[in-house]
Amino acid sequence: MKTxxxxxxxxxxxxxxxxxxxxxxxxxxxxTQTIIxxxxxxxxxxxxxxxxxxxxxxEKEKNQR
Length: 65
Fold this sequence. Notes:
The protein is an all-alpha fold and about 60 residues long. It has a domain at about 1-25. The chain is built from 2 helices and no strands. The protein is elongated.
């Protein structure tokens, strides 16, 4: 199960990087699409770091038992 969570974490990072590139490419063309891509990329980065932090908390809790 631990490997699954690491794969999902890096999947969030990959999606966030892809959406960041799309945000840059659509910057001057469509404002609505740019805002949506930027918001989703920020959410992807947040989920990447949050899952890392949460995984460390779970490991710390397991080690204390």
